[in-house]
Structures are given as structure tokens and as C-alpha cells.
Amino acid sequence: MRPGDSETLDFVRSAYANPVQVADSWRTAGGKVIGILGHDAPRELVVALEMLPIRIAPLRLTRTGEPPPAAAPKSLTDELSPDTGLVLAAMLEGRLDWMDGLVICRDSETHSKLFAVLRELARIGAMRDSPPIVFYDRILSESNAAARYNRLRINELANTLSSWAGRELTRDGIAEAVSEANSTVNALRELAAARRAVPSLRGSDMLSISGAALTLPGHIMTEVLAYLATGYDGHQAPSTPGTRVFITGSPQDDPWTYQALESAGFDIVGEDHDWGEGGWSLITETPDPMDGILDGHRTTQPRAARTGVKERCYNTARMAAEARADLVIQIFFYHDQASGWEFPFLRQLLASTEIHLVQARVQYGHPDPTPLLQAVGVISSQETAIEGKPHG
Description:
46% helix, Rossmann fold, 9 strands, 16 helices
């Protein structure tokens, strides 16, 4: 991509929507691609080994035009969420041949269960066409015992990644990858702050840009963000600004929820889930860069089922206020009950503000806008008592 290319935003949308195409291009040039399931993996180690880390979205696991994988047997998916069930189905059909390895992070318990299923299938020889897999575990605790445990786990991951890359990790290489990652985070934050001042870049496009940062090589993403920061010609402020919306709840790894709200006239100005702003965490650049990575994992944005409800809600309320949101929409999937637990306390926190709160439950992988539009319908009808009204 060239600086000044008028199709920059289309390029970013394409990379986000078609990660397999990005992977194919990288591998055609002789590189290796490492898929990452979850947010918590230290991507910097993959980059330091000159491989491309791509965070996988279960709805975008196959090449454009290919039919989706058939459902995995129910006997294997009873304990899995719908999204991890899609990953298992793709693995069973050999659809992940576009990656050279897969890192599964323990940022949700369903990921742990998926790894257990895959390990057993590999043991009995049922995963012959799948890429090698490694499970990255860590403990969210400030104790010394947890610190020792996490150091062991990240060292094991580093050794596995090195064996996949066919080269050794170096301290300088990790430090350079950390610096590049921090530059990307700072650029994303600056772009988000600029578009919040005047909502001229759609929230769905910001989600695509954030997702592209988890897909594209770092040097290309740096070029993309530098160009967007100068003012993309396609940025046009709406003639009539809509209600400013902040999204919380389940991680939204597909833009359909954002697009449905934008079609109804809402401006999405921020989110706290880890496919968007909730995943933009800086890493302290320490003499031993591995220390900074581990510290960064302890101070990442709080997420449902991994940190306390109050901590999550205080963070959501703070981010919504900073985004000058008029409305917080808690969107959560039917299988993600932990996100729904936050609603009562978040309602209490927002009760003293002018920020309204509604809730919408949607089914993962089934883009039905009805629950969302029903939830925000109370805004359009100008009802007065909408705070805390659960919808959907």
C-alpha cells in the first residue's frame, strides 16, 4: 500500500474481513503465520521471531467464497461456546491450513476446554491435517507464586514459538517488537480521540482498523495509521450528529452489531471490549522486555469472568464518560452470561450521570439486529425512565 492511497480504508476493511488472504500473501513471500485464539498471548514474541501473528475470529476462519465448516459433533461441543465450536469444526475439516501454528490463550474457560478436546483428538490421531497447537496459560494475581508460574509459562511458549520459527529469540528482537506494538497502540488511541471530537469516522470502521492491527504486519499497519491520522479524504462528518454510543459486554469480533446501530442513526464513539479499545494496552519497555510483557498482562483492561464486577464497571463508566457518550449499550451473547452480571452495578454507577444504559442479548454468529434496535428504541421514543432497562 502506498502513502496517500485513496483506498486506504477499504484496504483496512479487507484485511479485517479476510485475514486468510493476509496470511496467504505472507506465506507466499516465505513467512510463517501463527494464529492466536484470544487476546492474552504475547504477540510480540511471534513478531520478534519474524512470524506474523493473526488473531483469529471464529466467523472468519476460511477463505472468501468457501462454505463454512460443518458443525462439529455435539458430543465434542457440549462444553464449548458457539465461537470455540466453530474453531473445532474448522480444525476437524483441516480448514486452518493457512497457519503454521495456533496459540490458544486461557482468557476464557471455554478456550481451556477447547484445548483439552484438541489435545485428546491429536492423541488418538484425529487431527492429522491441523497446525501444531500450544496452550498459553497464566494466572491473574499479584502474588510471587503467580509471577513465577507466569514466567515459566511464557518461557515455555517462547521455546515452542522458537521451534516453529526455526530461530532463536533475542532480547533485542523482543524489545523492537514491544516498541512497535506500543507505537501502534499510541497511534490507535490518537485516531480514536480525533474521531470522537467530531464523529467523522464510523465506529464500525474503527473496529475494522483495530482488528486490522491484529492481522496486518506491523510496518504496514504503521503506514496505514500514519496516513489515517493526517485526515482521510473519505471522512465526512454527518450533517446531523446521532446519539453517541459506547459499547460494552461481550467482545464483538464482527462489525454487524456496530453496522446495525449506525444504520439506525447512532454514532459509536468507543468500547471496552478487547477487539476494540479494551485491547489497546501499552507495554512498559523494561531492560528485560519479557518483564514488561508479563507486567502488561497484569495491568490489561479488566474483562468479564477474569476480574471483579466492580472493577469492570468502574472502568466501563470511566471510559464512557471520557468518550462523552449519551448511551451505553451492553451487548452480550447468550453463551456469555458473565458479561450480563455487570448490568445492575453499572446501572448504579451511571444513575448519577446523564448517560443512559440499555442491554441487548444477541446470538453469536446470527446477525439479527432486532434485539439491538429494540433496546435502543427507548431512546428514539424519548422515554424518560430508560436507565437500567434490560432489553432483548
